[in-house]
Write a structure and sequence with these properties.
Length: 274
């Protein structure tokens, strides 16, 4: 069953609401898509993420321009590579390598077996417990200026775990940041920056899967969903940064466990199809 404009609009709202919260946007698109009658597919998920990631570019525009400028000037020797912004540029590149390598190596598995809803439900509650543990033991002291090369690599490995629907890109990187002692806001902010190259590379690559005879979503609905995801995500980013600056992640941990239970129930009763 193909996805029409109304269904695409619903999926766009879901993508925008869930991309930056530690609850897994890919899991939500998979679940909601099934309730609507079809799996929108990995290509649709990746392309709509271009909308949410464009919201990051808009929200952090001045920070991103400053980082790119310092990084480029460091290549020319006009800015020392120890400059905080230049280092951030290199750290984002370093942190992107794991998800890029693993995503390419296991692309077939990610687009097929990894989308099984039994696996999605399991990763939802398992990583909820991991996030709970990290939130409980978090020292919440280190700012992003203290980000080291080792920590940058560990952030990258945590982001790569989000190749499995249900883990959550932001949830994985935020969890790593908490365990490494960074403040909740610092871990969240870095998760946004770290996702930019990975999401754009994946989304642009997956454009080839939109509009083909085998694709469940055509170009028109995909574009609509991407635009809606951009608008919704732009509002969510600011709210989420304010929220985590003063509160923990208990709300999202409880939600993940509750959603996992609902998915298990839906699969057991036949409402959802694995």
């Amino acid at each position: 069953m193909s996805v029409g404009y109304v269904d695409a609009a619903i999926l766009g709202v879901v993508q925008g609401l869930t991309e930056f919260l530690p609850i897994s946007s890919s899991a939500h698109l998979r679940i909601v898509g099934d309730l609507l009658g079809t799996d929108p597919g990995a290509a649709f998920t990746a392309v709509t993420q271009l909308g949410t990631e464009t919201a990051v570019l808009v929200f952090f525009f001045h920070d991103i321009v400053r980082i790119i400028k310092a990084w480029a000037l460091s290549l020319l020797g006009r800015v020392p590579r120890t400059d905080p912004d230049a280092r951030m540029g290199w750290l984002v590149i370093l942190g992107t390598l794991p998800i890029g390598i693993l995503g390419f190596a296991f692309s077939d598995l990610i687009e097929t077996a990894a989308r099984n809803l039994w696996l999605v439900a399991t990763t939802l509650w398992v990583f909820a417990l991991v996030l709970w543990w990290a939130d409980t033991v978090a020292r919440d002291t280190k700012p992003l200026t203290e980000l080291s090369w080792r920590d940058g690599a560990l952030f990258g490995l945590a982001q790569a775990a989000a190749l499995i629907p249900g883990v959550s890109r932001s949830g994985g990187t935020i969890t790593a940041g908490l365990l490494l002692g960074y403040t909740r806001e610092a871990a969240t902010r870095y998760s946004f920056l770290l996702a930019i190259p990975a999401v754009f590379a994946s989304g642009l690559y997956q454009l080839r899967g939109i509009g083909t005879p085998q694709a469940p979503v055509a170009w028109g609905p995909t574009i609509l969903a991407t635009l809606i995801a951009f608008g919704v995500a732009l509002a969510v980013i600011g709210w989420f940064l304010r929220y985590v600056s003063s509160r923990g992640f208990g709300l999202f941990i409880a939600y993940r466990i509750g959603l996992a239970a609902v998915v298990y129930l839906g699969l057991a009763t036949g409402i959802l199809t694995a």
